[in-house]
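Z., the sequence and structure:
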Amino acid sequence: MFRRLSTKYALSVAFLLSIVMLTVLVLAGRVVYQRTSDLRVELADSFSSAQAVNDVEALRASGVYLSNRLFNPLYRADISSLNEEIAQIHQWLAPRSILILDSEGRLVTDGSHENPRYREQISLPAGLQPSEPIVQNRSDGATLFFVIGFGGTTQGFARVELSNARRLEALRKLQAEVDTSWNGFESAFIDTALASLGVIALVSVVLGWRLSRSLSRPLSAMGQAAQEFAAGKLDHQLPEWSDDELGELARSLNDMARDLDKTSRLLTRTQEIAGLGSWEWRRQSATLTLSRGVYRILGSEPGAFEPTVNKLAEFTGASDREHLFSIMEGRYECPKSREIQIMRPDGTRRCVLLQGEPVLDTSERVTGYLGIIQDITEQRRSERQLETLANYDSLTRLPNRNLFYDRLRHAIQQAERRKSVVALLFLDLDGFKAINDALGHDIGDQLLQLVAERLDSVLRDCDTLARMGGDEFTVIVENVRDKSDLREVARKLIDSLSCGFDIQGRELIISTSIGIAMYPQDAQSIDNLIKIADAAMYAAKDDGKGTFRYFTAELDRNARARLSMEQELRRAIDCQDFELQFQPQIGTRTGRLVAVEVLLRWRRDGRLEAPATFMSVLEDTGLVTRLTRWVLQETCRWHGKLSANGLTNIRMAVNLSARQFQQDDLAELIDETLRGTTLSADSLELEITESTLLDRDSSQRNAEILANRGVRLAIDDFGTGYSSLIYLKRFHVDTLKVDRSFVRGMLENPDDAQITATVIGLAKGLGIRSVAEGVEHPEQLAMLREQGCDMVQGFLVSKSLTGPDLLDWARGQRILDSECHWKRLA
């Protein structure tokens, strides 16, 4: 229960009133009053100073920690992750606002879903550096600015607006408690003085002395506690004497100390997460204070050694000691940082970042220095790994595309200064894709490693061999005198691969085609130089592979013509300048019209272009996939017209390129197109080359899906490339088409006749229909019938026809049993 101080002594001193008591009490009261007044001011100032210093240090440490934490989501431009981080920061610091900015100072996110100020330009303070947050104090709070980065990379900035409401509220409460206690004390003191006038001199002196001690001792203890708190000793506790004003004040001080201790532990944990430690060196006492984080970084325990700058220097090498003294003892005029190496007691080395800045008093005099020590060993190791990953190919250890561009740029700059020539050789491995697909990526990767080693072994140290990706390599040759130098380099590269490679018991043979371009003769920019070298490489492949070609004006003209054709084809697709033609396929025994092959034609400037002139461009650019739906729809439309003219059960054989057959939505597209038409799935036959079936997993997946839905599959130009009999059975191939090159020579060339008979016999043995292309003479037809070929097509039957012409042709044939019979077989 609250008790006033006057009630303690009023009854005991009432009868001792005297002039001596009055004199003693006046003097004692003056002393007590002055001491308690001074202690009150000292207490308030100590708490305010301690709170301000702790707040600034906490903000700086938080800025350093958040700089690294926010780097990854800002680097990935992951707004959702940034907003989650901002929400976490709100829980930690309770700021007014948090703004995440990009490297140009434009707003990325403010943490809200609406983000109304997105990309607004936000002003930043001058001199903002990585790992050096800036705290700007304001009358109503503080603003924290820090760089969001990783190592030397700056990805953006952050601005955190904080209110000092909590600190002001705590100080206000403290001040209110002090004022309340002071007012109570002042009132009690006056009452006691007036009541003590009747106390005898001796008793008055004794009681006055006891009253002075009882009042000043708690306040002295509070002042000493404030100094202990300001020094960071937050475990100090005041005794809570009673339930009076001083007791309430003592409890408030203890509560504040516990809050500060909790904040200090939170800051320590934050430093541990960030690999941070803090230090402070006081000039007057020449003492060094280290946080637990510093001991942890040094691999020691607190108390293991006396914390002095000289002792700390023993952990560093001789070359770093001067820097350590320079920063920690202030041998500089501005804040400074330095990376230094330390040796732990267990012998491990760590790389740390040492930062420091002067501490000024109110007179702007330097009273000491404080800063942080951060363990950045893993950060620097990660940076080295990232640099390796960024510049070197992980498989071959050769320079990758990024480093290649940098070295080519440097080589061109050197050539400009020296008036010399730089050559670029573009290499592509011949047949690598077939090996990779047939034997697997593991063997393909081993082959690439061995190829890289051989290519590198024949080059000079000054030449740069890089892997551009896949099976493409480049070589930069500087200071070229004439083409004979390049001819020798190209020949060495080609010859280095002439011997086979022994991989897992297999001998693999591979060659390379090389395109050569020179700067500045052939191109004046990096991109053009690479482009024309690539064009020359494709020209080398067209020449038979395993050779090299220089870039020429003719290649440039061909490239421009190809680009012009690509643009024309894009316009043709938009304007629907394509049309279909049809070539009949008849049974060799019955003479009946069995199927119709659907052929794509391009009406260009009033004339029809055959696929040979434009299909490769459509295929390479991917434009051909834009025609798939139209071709299928037109095929269904003309099949409906054939059915309407009495020609039923006719298969429609549609040629699809590799790109078209690899479309992910091909099966769904066919289902959608066939729905509601006269063309059923088993009357639709898709013609592809055998290489298409072996090319990609998507082709094989589509083959299985379409076979399950009843769509027929025909292999065109069988025997001209790599053939897999297993795939013929696995993917339910329905038809083999004998290439026209074998049919054309079968009458004069026994080999062609034998190949044709073999393909027909293979089809018959597998239960697959055979179709011979390019039949132009009756003798060819007779031989094919004798060999057991099922169907034929070619000029002997009919040339390719437009849709209306196909209907007229069909009407001109003999109709028996509702089937069209070819006249020549009558």
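The chain has a mean pLDDT of 80. The longest strand covers residues 349-360.

Let me know what you think.
H.
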